# Entry
Amino acid sequence: MKIFYLIKEGFKNIWTNRMMSLASVIVLVSCLIITGAASLISINVTALISKIGDDDQITVYLDYDLDDLRSIKLGSQLNKIKNIDSYSFFSRDDAIKQYKEVLGSIYESMQDDGNPFGNAYKVKLKDLSQYKKTVDEIKRVEGVSSVSDRSDIAGKLTKLNYFVTIVGSWVVLVLALVTLFIISNTIKMTMYSRRYEISIMKSVGATNSFIRVPFIIEAMVIGLVSGLAAASVICSVYMPVRTAAAGIIGFIGDSTFTVEQIILPTFIAMSVTGILIGLIGGFISIARYLKKEGGEIIGW
Amino acid sequence: MIHLENVSKVYNNGIEALKNISLDIDNGEFVFIVGPSGAGKSTFLKLLIREEKATFGKIIVSGYDLMKIRRSKIPYLRRKMGIVFQDFRLIAKMNVYDNVAFAMRVIGSPEKAIKKRVKEVLNLVELDGKEKRKPNEISGGEQQRVSLARALVNKPDMIIADEPTGNIDPDLSFDIMKLLVEINKTGTTVIIVTHEHDLVKEFGGRIITIEDGEIKSDEKYPTKYHEKEADKK
# Structure
């Protein structure tokens, strides 16, 4: 098989049906932009949630009477709880120091009754969805007085993460199907406009793969061009959008991906998606068409 | 070369286009298939080129069993035959040369071989000098000759022509038939479906008459044209 001839034919198809190709590229670019944007929002929100999750430490307050030695020994009990990722000792002296720093001059004016704080641990969890269960386990440890309960925040974060992942996946899936439908229709129309040639090709003994290759190349090129165009649009819009969002919510700036971080993955992902969609869409439409024969193709 | 044994074709709509047909066509024969419209001639051709599959019976063409042939092998069967259509089926945007070369390109022939062979066949059908013309710039007779050149270009074992003179003037029809006779003389089997009795009478040969899906007659007539040519010499 003469691959260069077939590739040339594929490009020729695009040029011959340039208006249809352009229309498909425009629609595909729109779909890919939405798909890409949904994916970017999803991964950024996930990153944001993960960042918030990292900051979300539990404070385990120990009994006031527990001296420093016994308090430190209690750490080994926490170590046995599976969902605890890490823990650090926060002594009563650290607590009062922090207290003084926060209150400053107000503290100075207050009457000094000694250190009112007990020792504590700052604990980080592995899985926020098991927050409540883990807090209960911590509470059962002898010497623990109380635990800062932020289960509502943990629950909300988990729910938001879940929501973003599910909704994002559905949006991407639905749009991928839409783009698949568009490209398969474009190829169907191209094949219809070239049905005469296809029927002649069949009558002179062209194999199905020989007939198929130029159309597949056409679909893949349309997919690739659309992917590259969509990636360019996404990357050029990403920075201003991120800056604007960071202006409203400060920590977005630190917790989300920079444009430099997303450029290469976005171009690769969009190009691969475009090519794959072209490949699959092309195969679907051609397979149906190639089952037909001569007069059936032309419609006589 | 072609062997049909008790072949029947019933379409999905219930129409029985061919009924229990049996015949053999040997290498190098010149055969007319005649009969009125709707007799089953086109179905017969479609079965030979495996556009349709027979409902019953056995068909062997160039060694391929058409009842058992795999879909992927059908293109190779078709490379053994050159098909000429009544409506020429030329590609309007391609010139004469490319229309003929197209048949070689789609089976993956090298460009050098294409150039040489296309020149030969265009010379054979007397179209040399018209390579650059588009189909709409030449006459109906010339268009059919392009179609014939395309059918010949891959050196098929047989030419199957479906009403090859149906869309052209009677004078030009005669020229096309003469060309087919010349091609037959090189050993290529020629099967022509037609309802033009004058031409059939003029050229003679083996004439198979199909009516109502059945073979009504299968007779050999004197090949008058061949005799006339011999007399001239």
In short: Chain A has a mean pLDDT of 80. The beta strands of chain A are 58-62, 84-90, 120-125, 144-147. Chain A has two domains: 3-53+155-298, 57-149. Residues 57-149 of chain A form a domain with the Alpha-Beta Plaits fold (CATH 3.30.70.3040).
